[in-house]
Backbone:
C-alpha cells in the first residue's frame, strides 16, 4: 500500500447536546473516558497512528478543557514545525458569524487552514467514536473505488428512539452510496455512518467554497443527502471494534465494555497506542482491606474499599469500607469511607461523603456532576 | 547565553556493581524504581522543583538506556531554550581522551560545559538516592553562611554512622573534620553526596586536583579534604526527610517497600513536588474477577488475575491466574505465569516466570535463615515452568523447565 498524506479535521463539539451533564462544561472531545483518556484521544491517536501529522481541531464552545488537554499536541507527537496540531476556535469576520451551524459552516470558517494544508487527503471526523482506526486502508479503498468521498460505516441495529442526527444509507454491492437518511424512524439493522469521511483536500476546498456562496451549512443534508446521486460517494465498512457515543447510555455502555479483555485488545494494541495527556501521577495504591474485581484502575488512585465492575480514573480515592459497583469514578473524585455506589457516574472532582448511598440502574445510571458534593 | 545563578551536575556514571544483574545492561540511575520511575527521576525532579533549569548528567557506563530515557528532557520540563538537561559522556580531546577517573575528574572534564553558563554556584548530585529535597533552601543556607562549600547531611543512628562519610561540625554547621567510614564516629552527620560549591572556588580546587599526581580525583577522598585542610568555609546543611541510598539489592528492595508503608515520610502524592517520569502510553490496569490485590502499588498497562500483596508492580506487567506475588518488585513488561509463586524477589524488566515456578521464599518458612535473602531475576530472563529459584539467588540467564533447582 502506498502511504498517502492526509490531514485531519476533528469536530470537537458535535454531539454535545446528547451528552447531558458530561458536556455542560466541556466539548464532546474532552469528555473523560476509560480511566485516563478523553474522547478526542481516540480519533487523534487513530490519525497519528495512520501517519497523519497535521490535525485541525474545530472548537465551537466550552473548549477550555479541550485546549488544556491538547496543549501543544506533544503527547500525540503533533507539536511540529510543519503541520502538527492546531485548535481552530470560532471567529467572526465578514460574512461568518463565529458560532457555526453545521459542519460545512464550520469548515467554511476554517477554509484558510484547509487551503494551507500540505496533505493530499483530508479526513473529517467527530469525537464520538471509541475505536482504533486505520485511515490508510480507508484511503486505499477510496482510491481503489475512484471515489470522490468515502464514508466510514458499520452495520448496526438501530432503535426507534435516540436516532437523532444518525445518518444511515443504502450501499450498492460495489460500495457506492445510494439513498441517505438523517434521523431515520426505523428499527432494523442499517449501514450507520460513523461521521468519518475521506476526500481529496482540493475537493473539500471546492465543496466549502460552493457551500459558502450558496449559503449551505450542513455536510449531511447539503452534500450527502443532496448529492448522493451526482457525486461518487462510497461506503467503507469498519469491521473493527467501534463504539459510538450518542447518548449518556451509550457512554455508560461503552465504558463498561472496556472491562472485556477482547475489547481492550482491539482498542489498545501495543503497535497502535492510544495517546493522551501525561499527568505524572503515582501508580495506584491499594490499601489493606482493598477488594477489587473486574475493574480498570488508572494511576494516582488510592483504593481502600471494594471496587467491582467499575472504571476508576486517575487520582480518584475510594475510602475504607466504601463499596463501588458497576460505576465510573472520574479523575480526582473522592468517595468517602463506607459510601455505597451502584450504577453511578461520578464526574471529575466529585465528592461523595462518608456512608452516602447512591444507586442508579443499568439502563439509567445516575450521573453526578463535576465538582458536586453529596 | 544568559548567566545562570546555579546549575546542577548529576554524577550518573557509576556501574552500580552491587546491584548485580539489575545493572548489567543499564547504568544505576536508570534502574526502575517505585512502579513507574527510574532512580534518576528523583534528583532530576528535585532540580526542576527547586528552580534549576540546567542539569548536566555525567555518564559513562552503559549509557544507552539512560540517554534514551532522558531524551530531550521534556518529561522533567527540562527542554529549555537556554539550558535544559544534557547527557555528558567522556569525549575525545586534541590532547587525547580519558574515561572519567573519579567524581571530581568527571566535573573537571566538563569545565567548558559549566563555564558556558558562568554560574555563581554549582550543585553536585549523585544518581543513586531516593529522596525529595528542596535544593533552593540549601542554596539559601549556603549564601547566608557565605560558604565555599555546603554539604547536605542526614542524622543517622550512631551505631550505623561508621558506614557513612561523617561530617564533624560545630554548632553553627561549620565543618572542621571529615571522616570517611570512621571506626569510632564522633558525630552522626552523614554526607548525602549532595554538595553546593561556589563555582570559582570549586574550579580552583578541581584544577589543582587535576595536577596532583596520584589523586583519585574524587570529591570525598580529595576535593573535600583539601578544601578542609586549606580552611575554606565549609558547612553542613542538615536535612531531615526520607533519604535512601539504593545502591544494593537489599536497599533497593527496602526503598520500594517503603512506598507501601504509610509511616515512611516519602509521599509521592504531593501535587507541589511531583516526581516526573517518562510515561509509556498504556491503558489503566485491569484487575480481573479472581484477583486479590492489597497493600500494593500497581501501574498502568498491567493485567492482574492472580494475587498481589505487599508488592510494587511496574507498567505493563501481567500476573496470571493463580500466580502469587508477595513482598516483591516486578519491573516493566514482565509476565508471571499461571500458578507461579514469587516471594521476596526483584524481577527485572521483560522477564517471564513460567507456570508453577517458585521464585524466592519467605523467611518464616526457612529452617536456616542465614541463607535467606532477596532473590533477583535479571532482565529478559525466562524461567521455565516448575523451576524453583532459591532465596538470595541472582539469575542472569534463562533456566529451562528441566533444570530444577538453582542456588
Residues:
Amino acid at each position: 500500500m502506498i502511504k498517502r498524506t492526509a490531514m485531519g479535521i476533528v469536530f470537537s463539539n458535535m454531539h454535545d447536546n446528547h451528552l447531558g451533564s458530561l458536556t455542560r462544561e466541556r466539548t464532546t472531545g474532552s469528555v473523560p473516558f476509560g480511566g485516563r483518556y478523553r474522547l478526542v484521544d481516540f480519533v487523534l491517536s487513530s490519525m497519528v497512528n495512520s501517519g497523519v501529522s497535521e490535525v485541525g481541531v474545530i472548537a465551537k464552545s466550552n473548549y477550555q478543557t479541550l485546549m488544556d488537554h491538547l496543549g501543544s499536541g506533544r503527547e500525540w507527537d503533533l507539536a511540529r514545525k510543519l503541520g502538527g496540531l492546531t485548535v481552530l476556535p470560532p471567529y467572526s469576520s465578514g460574512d461568518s458569524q463565529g458560532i457555526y451551524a453545521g459542519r460545512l459552516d464550520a469548515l467554511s470558517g476554517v477554509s484558510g487552514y484547509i487551503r494551507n494544508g500540505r496533505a493530499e487527503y483530508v479526513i473529517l471526523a467527530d469525537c464520538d467514536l471509541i475505536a482504533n482506526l486505520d485511515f490508510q486502508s480507508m484511503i486505499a479503498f477510496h482510491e481503489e473505488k475512484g471515489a470522490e468521498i468515502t464514508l466510514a460505516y458499520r452495520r448496526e441495529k438501530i432503535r426507534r428512539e435516540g436516532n437523532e442526527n444518525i445518518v444511515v444509507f443504502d450501499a450498492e454491492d460495489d460500495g457506492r452510496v445510494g439513498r441517505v437518511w438523517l434521523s431515520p424512524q426505523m428499527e432494523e439493522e442499517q449501514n450507520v455512518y460513523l461521521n468519518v469521511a475521506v476526500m481529496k483536500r482540493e475537493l473539500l476546498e471546492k465543496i466549502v467554497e460552493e457551500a459558502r456562496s450558496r449559503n449551505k451549512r450542513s455536510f449531511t443534508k447539503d452534500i450527502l443527502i443532496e448529492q448522493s446521486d451526482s457525486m461518487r460517494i462510497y461506503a467503507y465498512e469498519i469491521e473493527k471494534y467501534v463504539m459510538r457515543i450518542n447518548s449518556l447510555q451509550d457512554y455508560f455502555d461503552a465504558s463498561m465494555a472496556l472491562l472485556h479483555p477482547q475489547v481492550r485488545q482491539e482498542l489498545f494494541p501495543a503497535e497502535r497506542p492510544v495517546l493522551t495527556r501525561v499527568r505524572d501521577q503515582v501508580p495506584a495504591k491499594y490499601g489493606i482491606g482493598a477488594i477489587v474485581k473486574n475493574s480498570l484502575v488508572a494511576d494516582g488512585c488510592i483504593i481502600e474499599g471494594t471496587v467491582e465492575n467499575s472504571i476508576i480514573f486517575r487520582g480518584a480515592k475510594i475510602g475504607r469500607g466504601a463499596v463501588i459497583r458497576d460505576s465510573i469514578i472520574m479523575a480526582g473524585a473522592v468517595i468517602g469511607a463506607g459510601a455505597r455506589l451502584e450504577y453511578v457516574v461520578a464526574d471529575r472532582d466529585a465528592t461523595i461523603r462518608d456512608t452516602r448511598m447512591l444507586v442508579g440502574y443499568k439502563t439509567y445510571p445516575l450521573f453526578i456532576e463535576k465538582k458536586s458534593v453529596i | 547565553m544568559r548567566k545562570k545563578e546555579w546549575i546542577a551536575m548529576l554524577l550518573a556514571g557509576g556501574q552500580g556493581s552491587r546491584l548485580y544483574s539489575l545493572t548489567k545492561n543499564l547504568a544505576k540511575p536508570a534502574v526502575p524504581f517505585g512502579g513507574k520511575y527510574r532512580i534518576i527521576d528523583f534528583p532530576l525532579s528535585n532540580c526542576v522543583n527547586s528552580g534549576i533549569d540546567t542539569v548536566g548528567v555525567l555518564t559513562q557506563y552503559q549509557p544507552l538506556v539512560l540517554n534514551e530515557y532522558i531524551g530531550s528532557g521534556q518529561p522533567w520540563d527540562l527542554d529549555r531554550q537556554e539550558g535544559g538537561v544534557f547527557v555528558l559522556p567522556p569525549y575525545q580531546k586534541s590532547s587525547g581522551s580519558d574515561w572519567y577517573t573519579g567524581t571530581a575528574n568527571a566535573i573537571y572534564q566538563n569545565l567548558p560545559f559549566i563555564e558556558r553558563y558562568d554560574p555563581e554556584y554549582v550543585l553536585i548530585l549523585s544518581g543513586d538516592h531516593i529522596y525529595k529535597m528542596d535544593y533552593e533552601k540549601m542554596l539559601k543556607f549556603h549564601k547566608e553562611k557565605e560558604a565555599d562549600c555546603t554539604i547536605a547531611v542526614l542524622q543517622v543512628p550512631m551505631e550505623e554512622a561508621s558506614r557513612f562519610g561523617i561530617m564533624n561540625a560545630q554548632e553553627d554547621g561549620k565543618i572542621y573534620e571529615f571522616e570517611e567510614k570512621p571506626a569510632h564516629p564522633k558525630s552522626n552527620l552523614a554526607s548525602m553526596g549532595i554538595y553546593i560549591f561556589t563555582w570559582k572556588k570549586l574550579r580552583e580546587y578541581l584544577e589543582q586536583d587535576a595536577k596532583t599526581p596520584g589523586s583519585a580525583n574524587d570529591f570525598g577522598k580529595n576535593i573535600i579534604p583539601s578544601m578542609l585542610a586549606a580552611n575554606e568555609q565549609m558547612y553542613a546543611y542538615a536535612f531531615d526527610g526520607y533519604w535512601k541510598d539504593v545502591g544494593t539489592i537489599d536497599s533497593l528492595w527496602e526503598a520500594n517497600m517503603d512506598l507501601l508503608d504509610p509511616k515512611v515520610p516519602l509521599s509521592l502524592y504531593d501535587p507541589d513536588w511531583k516526581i516526573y517520569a517518562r510515561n509509556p502510553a498504556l491503558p489503566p490496569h485491569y484487575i480481573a474477577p479472581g484477583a486479590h490485590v492489597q497493600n500494593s502499588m500497581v501501574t498502568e498497562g498491567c493485567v492482574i488475575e492472580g494475587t498481589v500483596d505487599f508488592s510494587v508492580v511496574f507498567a505493563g506487567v501481567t500476573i496470571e491466574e493463580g500466580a502469587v506475588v508477595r513482598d516483591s518488585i516486578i519491573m516493566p513488561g514482565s509476565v508471571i505465569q499461571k500458578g507461579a509463586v514469587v516471594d521476596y524477589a526483584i524481577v527485572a524488566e521483560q522477564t517471564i516466570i513460567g507456570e508453577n515456578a517458585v521464585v524466592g521464599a519467605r523467611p518464616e518458612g526457612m529452617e536456616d535463615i542465614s541463607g535467606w535473602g532477596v532473590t533477583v531475576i535479571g532482565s529478559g530472563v525466562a524461567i521455565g515452568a516448575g523451576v524453583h529459584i532459591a532465596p538470595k539467588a541472582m539469575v542472569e540467564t534463562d533456566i529451562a523447565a528441566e533444570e530444577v533447582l538453582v542456588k
